[in-house]
Structures are given as structure tokens and as C-alpha cells.
Amino acid sequence: MSGVWVFKNGVIRLVENPPAGSEKVLVYEPTGEVISSYATLERILTGLGWERYYDDYDLLQFHKSSSIDLISLPKDFSKFKSVHMYDIVVKIPNQFRVRDMN
Asked: Would you give the distance in Å from CA 20 to the centre of its chain?
């Protein structure tokens, strides 16, 4: 199953063929900051109590001791896609939002 999961008005749905040019950005809601690098994301996640795992050299991984959640991201930020952004939004509710770049 390929496509993009879209969250709108409390409903989750899969859009199998998203429109061309619909690039997404991850936004840290409390400050409105667009996540433009892993350094920025790591700073915010650390501030929210998440710890970096160093077990897998191919991934960036974060875990929070009070949770069973594990955030796994590709090591290369250019491969950070909307599926990874939505994973963060689901695991850290009310802190992040995915928006259209336009």
C-alpha cells in the first residue's frame, strides 16, 4: 500500500496518488519553527524528553523513557519524507504538525 496518510478534521485517510508538488514540512507548533535539519529536530525532541539511540548506524532513533514509542528516521535528511513527519505527529501529539510547503 503506497501513498500519503492525510489527517484532516479528525479523520485519517490514505491518498494513494498525492498531487504533484505537494511537498510537506514538519512544523513545531509552540514556536511555529519549520524543521529544516535533524539538528533542529534533535534539539526540540531532547527538550521534550526524548533520548537519542545510537544502536543503528543507518537510522536516527529517539525514545522517551515514559513511552514505548520509538521514532526511527533515515540518516540522510534529504530522505526525511511525509511518512516520517506523520509518525512524529502521531507519537508526539499537539507539538508538531505537517503542512504543505506552499
From this structure: 20
Whole-model pTM?
0.76
Burial class (CB in 10 A: 0-12, 13-18, 19+), 24: middle
Domain ranges of the chain: 20-100
Instruction: Tell me the β-bridge partners of 28.
Output: 33, 96
Quote the Cα angle for 90-92-98, to 5°.
60
What strand order describes the sheet that includes 51-53? 51-53, 59-63, 70-74
Strand partners for 5: 14
- Compute the mean pLDDT over every residue in the chain, rounded to the nearest whole number: 87
Q: Is the pLDDT of residue 14 over 80?
A: no
| DSSP letter for each residue of 32-93 | TEE--SHHHHHHHHHHTT-EEE-S-TTEEEEE-TT-S-EEEEESSGGG--HHHHHHHHHHST
